[in-house]
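If you are new to this repository, start here. Below is one unmodified record pulled from the training split, so you can see the exact layout before writing a loader.
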Amino acid sequence: MLDPAQLAALAAVHRRGAFDLAATELHVTPSAISQRIKALEEQTGTLLIRRGQPCQATEPGLRLIRHHDEVALLERTLADDLPGLAAPGPAMLRIAVNADSLATWVIPALAATDGLLFDLVIDDQDVSQDWLRRGEVVAAITAHPGPLQGCDTIALGALRYRATTSPDFAARWFAQGLTPEALATAPGLTFSDKDQLQTRWATQRGLVRPVLPTHRMASSQAFVDACLHGLAWGMNPEPLIAPHLASGALVELAPDTPLDVALYWQFTRLAAPALSPLTEAIRRAAKPVLVQG
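And here is the target side for that same chain:
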């Protein structure tokens, strides 16, 4: 039998990146954390944590962390079904979410789900499925429909993006219209190296293998603010900028040329019953915001 306290220590060290931070989270000493990890490694006969800065779980360690998360969710569901059992504390649910979904429609879904604490991994929708594949999260909002072994997938709709900027920026950099030359010189916005939305949209506009000059800003709201202040152009999610487009504070570089990014809710099959309230809340929150069908 696996010791739940040892599994909790393993998960905390990996997610906090250090033994002392894990100890603080679990209200024990760093020595206790070290002893629990050592005992678990001796029991399983394999290295579970690579010591370093930060400390990271090995592949077997990630598998045990996923087991720990799934058991915690299942125990929470069991307590709900059997009132005679002592109710555990809120289960910690770790999910991968892209920043634009978090900024536009995910928070209401989380707020509508009781009895859970959320540990959100913020990453691009094109790579969020990797977190689920590695066993580091039990669910993810992703651009990949799957299939992914051991997981179920629900289509949510598409988040619509529009290439927008301020009227002054458009007049300065695109006076001759949306030309490949203008796109190759006008400053744009990129969330991170994983962000390909601007490149995809520019490619659709005729720029071959575009290398776009860009500011890097890892914030959905900063994208909107940068465009409003004429710093750059960027692919902004329509729900965030609809009022600015209506008022004229933002304009599209090319009218009616949206880029739709299909999104999916993927989750481990074993945890599906425990996740069902959140899954339902995710579907309800996505429906009025995302483009359907």
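Two things worth knowing about this chain: The first strand starts at residue 49 and ends at 50. The CA atoms of residues 112 and 145 lie 25 Å apart.
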